[in-house]
Specification:
With 340 residues, the chain is of the alpha+beta class. It has helices at residues 12-22, 57-67, 78-84, 88-93, 103-110, 112-121, 133-142, 168-175, 229-241, 272-277, 282-290, 319-326, and strands at residues 2-6, 27-32, 45-48, 72-75, 97-98, 129-130, 149-152, 163-165, 182-185, 190-198, 204-216, 219-226, 246-255, 258-265, 307-309, 334-335. It has 12 helices and 16 strands.
């Protein structure tokens, strides 16, 4: 069995997790548009593909999968999800499982205003959110919002472009900034992250949760797992009402009134290693699903107190090794990385 991790970047840990899941019965292949992606050099095979935003990307990916009998493709960055979700059936007809949720789910996750609307429609708490200064000022008068407020991009990522406003003047100034088009109630509370998993029929399988201890560039850098009942139940409810296929990274604030949903990212998140260390083993479950095995839900098994601390892993390779991966004439040839 061959698993392909796309846009693999620096996620060497996922390469290792999938290799452990295959346990010698298959290969982990990795692709990127740059030969300088460090995780390429830890995979069993490395592939160069066009940039995700190019017109050739989908066709090149499908040809690579069919030519080399890839059975599971795991997209790892947000732009891929929007591109690949509409062609899920096309890949499935070719015998390839794309680990991507339906287009509607992808859009709900990428549009933070839709995320808040979706939560409230399904009885899940979320911060009050509006799309104009006038609506925010009215919400303040009505008591639905209180200072301070958060101004953010409706379709932003990596915690970029966030502004906390404490006056109407600051609110007007921030909202005039480029790409800031959403106003949300600011919450002061501990932040938690979920790693949820659903099977290929969108049935909930796993709910793992961790408290975020530190962030770096919008990604969880240090965390500790928790099995707190109200958090696990909230995560189970998210997995139940969202049309999710595969993994989901979700963020909540735990307020005095309970969890409030902030974000939905339908892919592996940067904090997943904490859940993996706590026993989540999403790669193992996914490999079993692709093989047609039944994976029973294990919701409620997330333990307390498993800590995750990230560190740098340095990759050193010779010029000829980098060139061997970069020089594919059709941009799809696969080369085995050599180990020192």
């Amino acid at each position: 069995m061959r698993v392909l991790l796309t846009s693999v970047g620096r996620r060497n840990y996922l390469v290792d997790y999938f290799r452990e899941a295959l346990a010698g019965t298959g290969q982990v292949w990795a692709s990127d548009c740059s030969p300088h992606a460090p995780a390429l050099y830890g995979a069993d095979r490395a592939a160069m593909l066009p940039p995700v935003g190019s017109d050739e990307y989908t066709a090149a990916l499908l040809e690579t999968c069919t030519r080399h009998e890839i059975k599971l493709v795991v997209p790892l960055i947000d732009p891929e999800l929007e591109i690949l979700a509409p062609v899920y059936d096309r890949f499935l007809d070719a015998g390839v499982r794309l680990l991507v949720s339906p287009p509607e789910t992808i859009d709900i996750g990428f549009d933070k205003f839709r995320t808040a609307q979706f939560a409230r429609q399904h009885g899940l708490a979320a911060p009050e959110s509006v799309l104009s200064v006038a609506e925010a000022l009215q919400a303040l008068r009505d008591g639905r919002m209180t200072w301070p407020l958060m101004v953010k991009p409706r379709r932003g990522s990596a915690s970029l472009g966030l502004h906390v406003c404490r006056t109407a003047e600051e609110l007007h100034a921030a909202f005039r900034s480029a790409d800031l088009d959403m106003i949300q109630q600011f919450l002061e509370a501990d932040e938690y992250g979920y790693d949820l998993l659903c099977d290929f029929e969108c049935r909930p399988v796993s709910v793992f949760c961790k408290k975020k201890l530190a962030m770096r560039s919008g990604e969880t850098d240090k965390a500790v797992s928790t099995g707190r009942a109200e958090l696990i139940e909230f995560g189970r409810r998210v997995a139940e009402v969202l049309d999710l296929r595969g993994p989901l990274d979700a963020d909540v604030f735990l307020t005095d009134d309970g969890p409030q949903l902030l974000e939905l990212n339908p892919r592996f998140g940067g904090g997943y290693p904490c859940s993996h260390g706590a026993g989540a083993d999403f790669p193992g479950k996914l490999v079993r699903m692709v093989r047609g095995e039944t994976v029973e839900p294990d919701i409620g098994t997330c333990p307390e107190g498993v800590h995750m601390f990230k560190q740098y892993d340095i990759v050193i390779r010779r010029a000829d090794e980098v060139a061997a991966i970069a020089a594919a004439p059709d941009n799809m040839a696969l080369k085995p990385p050599r180990r020192p």
